C-alpha cells in the first residue's frame, strides 16, 4: 500500500499540512482542480510557507484528478461545501480501504463525503491551527493550535498517525471526535455570525453578551437533545473565555465576508438549526440569527447557502 499523502485542496490548511509533511521527508502529492491550476502551480514550481520570520519553499509534485494510479491516503482540505463534490471526482481512484482525513470545519460535510466513498475510511479532524493564503501557492502559518482526529465508526489509530508527529503537526487521536466537532460548532455559532452582524472583532461581542448568552442557552439545549451533553458542559463560560482570548481577532466568518467569499454557514448555524428541527426542538434565537445572517449575506451579494 502506497504511503503517499495526496492533498486535495492546496489552499491555506492543505498547503500548511503539505509543506510540513514534505519537510519531514514524507511523500506528498497535490491534487489540483484542472490543467489551468496545474500549469499555474508548475509556473510557480513550489509551495511557499511563511512561518514567523522564516520563508521556506517546497517543490511538491502535483497532478490533476485525471492522473492515473490508486490513492490510499487523502487529506481533504477543501471548504466544507466543496468537499463532497471534489471527493466524488476522485472516488474511482480511491483504493478499497483508502483513508481520508477530513479537515472541514462544522458538521454535515463529513457525512456527505462518506456517502460518496463507502469503500473508504473517513477520519474526521477538528483543527484550531490557523493559516491563510498570502498569494497563490503561498501560505502563512498564522496561529499555532492543535488537531484532534478520530473515526466515529472505528476506534483504531491509523498506521500513519506517527507521520503527523514526525512532521511537527500537533495531533491526538480522539475517541470522541463528534463531541469535539459539536463543541467547536457551538462556539462558532455563538460567535461568528454575530461578528458579521455587528461588524466587529470577537471582542466587540463583549457589548452584546445578553445576545451571546441567549444563543448559548439554545445551543446547550440542542447539544443535550442530540446526545452531546459533554459538548454542552460550561458552554457559556467557554464562549466568553474564547471571546476574551481572541478579542482582537476577526472570526473566520467575518474574514470570509470581508473578502467576498462564500461562508460555511450551511455546515455551522445551518446544521444547528436543521438538527434542532429534526429533534423537534424550538430554537427561536438561532433561527432569527440565521435569517438575519442570510439577509445580510444576500444584501452583500454573497451566497447564503
Ligand atoms: P481555502 O479556501 O484556503 O482552501 C481550499 C482549497 O480547496 C482552495 O485552494 C480551493 O481552490 C481548493 N478546492 C476547492 N474545490 C476543489 C476541487 N474540486 N479540486 C481541487 N481543489 C479544490 O480553505 P481553508 O482555509 O484551507 O479551509 C479548508 C477547511 O479547513 C475549511 O472547512 C475550514 O473551515 C477549515 N479550517 C481552516 C482553518 C484555517 O486557518 N485556514 C483552520 C481550521 C479549520
Ligand atoms: O474558531 C473561531 C473562528 O473564527 O472560526 C473562533 C473565533 C475561535 C470562534 O468562533
Automatic annotation (TrEMBL):
Q: Which UniProt keywords apply?
A: NADP, Oxidoreductase, Pantothenate biosynthesis
Note one Pfam family from the annotation.
ApbA_C
Spell out the reaction equation it catalyses.
Answer: (R)-pantoate + NADP(+) = 2-dehydropantoate + NADPH + H(+)
Note the superkingdom of the native organism: Bacteria
Return the InterPro entries for the record.
Answer: 6-PGluconate_DH-like_C_sf (IPR008927), 6PGD_dom2 (IPR013328), ApbA (IPR003710), Ketopantoate_reductase (IPR050838), KPA_reductase (IPR013752), KPR_N (IPR013332), NAD(P)-bd_dom_sf (IPR036291)
Q: In which pathway does it act?
A: Cofactor biosynthesis; (R)-pantothenate biosynthesis; (R)-pantoate from 3-methyl-2-oxobutanoate: step 2/2
Which is an annotated GO molecular function term of this record? NADP binding
Which GO terms of the cellular component aspect does the record hold?
cytoplasm
- Output the GO biological process annotations, alphabetical, semicolon-separated: pantothenate biosynthetic process
Catalytic activity, EC: 1.1.1.169
Q: For the Ketopantoate reductase C-terminal domain, which residue ranges apply?
A: 177-291
> What does the UniProt function comment say about this protein?
Catalyzes the NADPH-dependent reduction of ketopantoate into pantoic acid.
Please state which protein family the record places this protein in. Answer: Belongs to the ketopantoate reductase family.
In its UniProt entry, what is this protein called?
Answer: 2-dehydropantoate 2-reductase
What is the protein's species of origin? Pseudomonas mosselii
Q: What is the lineage of its organism?
A: Bacteria, Pseudomonadati, Pseudomonadota, Gammaproteobacteria, Pseudomonadales
Amino acid at each position: 500500500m502506497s504511503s503517499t499523502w495526496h492533498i486535495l485542496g492546496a489552499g491555506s490548511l492543505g498547503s500548511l499540512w503539505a509543506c510540513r509533511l514534505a519537510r519531514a521527508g514524507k511523500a506528498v502529492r497535490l491534487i489540483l482542480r484542472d490543467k489551468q491550476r496545474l500549469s499555474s502551480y508548475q509556473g510557480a514550481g513550489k509551495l511557499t510557507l511563511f512561518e514567523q520570520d522564516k520563508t521556506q519553499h517546497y517543490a511538491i509534485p502535483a497532478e490533476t484528478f485525471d492522473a492515473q494510479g490508486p490513492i490510499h491516503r487523502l487529506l481533504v482540505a477543501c471548504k466544507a461545501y466543496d468537499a463532497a463534490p471534489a471527493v466524488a471526482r476522485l472516488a474511482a481512484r480511491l483504493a478499497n480501504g483508502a483513508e481520508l482525513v477530513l479537515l472541514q470545519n462544522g458538521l454535515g460535510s463529513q457525512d456527505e463525503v462518506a456517502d460518496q466513498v463507502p469503500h473508504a475510511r473517513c477520519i474526521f479532524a477538528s483543527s484550531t491551527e490557523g493559516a491563510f493564503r498570502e498569494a497563490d501557492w503561498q501560505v502563512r502559518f498564522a496561529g499555532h493550535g492543535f488537531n484532534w482526529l478520530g473515526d466515529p465508526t472505528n476506534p483504531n489509530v491509523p498506521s500513519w498517525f506517527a507521520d503527523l508527529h514526525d512532521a511537527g503537526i500537533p495531533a491526538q487521536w480522539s475517541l470522541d471526535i463528534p463531541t469535539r466537532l459539536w463543541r467547536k460548532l457551538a462556539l462558532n455559532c455563538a460567535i461568528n455570525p454575530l461578528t458579521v452582524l455587528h461588524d466587529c472583532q470577537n471582542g466587540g461581542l463583549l457589548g452584546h453578551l445578553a445576545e451571546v448568552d441567549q444563543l448559548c442557552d439554545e445551543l446547550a439545549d440542542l447539544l443535550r437533545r442530540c446526545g452531546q451533553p459533554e459538548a454542552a458542559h460550561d458552554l457559556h463560560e467557554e464562549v466568553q473565555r474564547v471571546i476574551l482570548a481572541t478579542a482582537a481577532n476577526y472570526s473566520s466568518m467575518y474574514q470570509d465576508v470581508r473578502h467576498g467569499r462564500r461562508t460555511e454557514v450551511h455546515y455551522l448555524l445551518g446544521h444547528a438549526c436543521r438538527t434542532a428541527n429534526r429533534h423537534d426542538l424550538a430554537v427561536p434565537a438561532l433561527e432569527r440569527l440565521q435569517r438575519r445572517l442570510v439577509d445580510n449575506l444576500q444584501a452583500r451579494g454573497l451566497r447564503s447557502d
